[in-house]
Amino acid sequence: MNTFTESEERQALRAAVADLGRRYGGEWFQRKARGGEKTTELWTEAGKLGYLGVNVPEEYGGGGGTIGDLAAVCEELSAAGCGLLLMVVSPAICATIITRFGTDEQKQAWLPRFADGSLRMAFAITEPDAGSNAHKLTTTARRDGDDWVLNGRKVFISGVDEAAAVLVVGRTEDARTGRLKPALFIVPTDAPGFEYQPIEMDIVSPDKQFMLFLDDVRLPADALVGSQDAALMQLFAGLNPERIMAASFAVGMGRYALDRAVAYAGDRSVWSTPIGAHQGIAHPLAVAKIELELAKLMTQKAAALYDSGDDAGAGESANMAKYAAAEASIKAVDAAVQAHGGNGLTAEYGMGALVAASRVNRIAPVSREMILNFVAQNTLGLPKSY
Ligand SMILES: Cc1cc2nc3c(=O)[nH]c(=O)nc-3n(C[C@H](O)[C@H](O)[C@H](O)COP(=O)(O)OP(=O)(O)OC[C@H]3O[C@@H](n4cnc5c(N)ncnc54)[C@H](O)[C@@H]3O)c2cc1C
Question: Does ligand 1 lie within 6 Å of residue 169's CB atom?
């Protein structure tokens, strides 16, 4: 059996999503972003077509597919120049965690809206003073009768202005040991005591990042996702899909830049042949192609492992895929900018905007260095420095 080629169904899904992406495209996307507008039409259409809910179980109106399917959707939109950043958090992390660990009531309440894309849920783990060190999270939830009362700060949270709710990673006190342990809460964005402020970023994107302020946010008992004791497992279950999606987003971005560069280099002549005939231009584009294909293959492996139920195996591959995809996308964008010459930095060609966008891939949702730490310690068994 050929296990290196995606199923016909997956290929058909990719082709259909690519068609949708082409109807919107990179120029439309960047125009919206530069104008301070949102790309809601694309999100809504993709949702209606079922693409944003491909991984939600059929009984809740979803496609009953896998993270591999969702990652294919994410990659194809990104490859068309109109990647939807919130796909990385809303259907991938939030819907996955609620599907796997939510109570029946939580599933009934939220999953049908993930299935048709009518809901966007942001995800908030990063804190100003904790950064990459999740052990230092200080957002805490205390019990007050049946309610929970949440206090804390979060930073760089994407899409809060478009989200109905945020899945917040907080900590609760263990009743037995008194130690703090993680817990996940669904916090509606209109909850009293919940406020957010945009962070001015040098990125051309319709999706913004926010600081969150949670001051005595009172939540009902059922705001806690699943069980208080299983939160760490729940968190890891959501982070693998996040990394797989981030990798797909990055591979798509690299493909978009490469396609544009190839078209430009095949067309533009300043000597007797198109510039694409010069190896100084052609070879970096060929390298980008090879490295994007390698990153994509690793992403497909991570998704296949995750979808087979192997969370541990998926963890290593998802980290490696995220690393490879980020590096490949940065290199592809750099080669694309260079191939465009001066046009590589004009707003008209839109390649310069991808420089900052592709650099995000190396930082979020987990930085290059933290992935290298993971591989050094877990895969290679080297000692820890921190
Ligand atoms: C565009 C964008 C969108 C984002 N969206 C979200 C979101 O929706 N939700 C959310 O929760 N977060 C989000 N983030 C936050 C993102 O996940 C963090 O920025 C990222 O995890 C790094 O954390 P930090 O910025 O605090 O960097 P720091 O932890 O302060 O790290 C700074 C630098 O030091 C390095 N470093 C830190 N520790 C070590 C170590 N032990 N060994 C070697 N190097 C180390 C890091 O790799 C990094 O290069 C987003 C960030 C960006 C830029």
Answer: no
CA-368 nearest atom, ligand 1: 47
pLDDT value for 84 = 98
Contact 340, 264 (CB under 8 A): yes
CA of 361 to the centre of ligand 1 (A): 11
Q: Within 13 Å of residue 158, how many CA atoms lie on the same side as its CB?
A: 15
Q: With a cut of 70, which residues of the chain have pLDDT below it?
A: 1-2
pTM of the model: 0.97
Maximum distance among all alpha carbons in the chain? 79
Q: Quick one: pLDDT at residue 236?
A: 79
Over residues 35-58, the pLDDT tens digits come to: 999 999 999 999 999 999 999 999
Tell me if 373 CB under 6 Å of ligand 1. Answer: yes
d(CA 289, CA 280): 15
Structural domains in the chain, CATH included, are 8-120 (1.10.540.10), 123-226 (2.40.110.10), 232-379 (1.20.140.10)
Query: Which residue has the least CA distance to atom 36 on ligand 1?
Result: 369
Ligand 1 pocket, mutate which of 121, 126, 189 (most atoms under 8 A from CB): 126
**pLDDT tens digits for range 331-354:** 999 999 999 999 999 999 999 999
Give CA–CA dist 349/337, Å, rounded: 9
CA of residue 70 to ligand 1 center, whole Å: 24
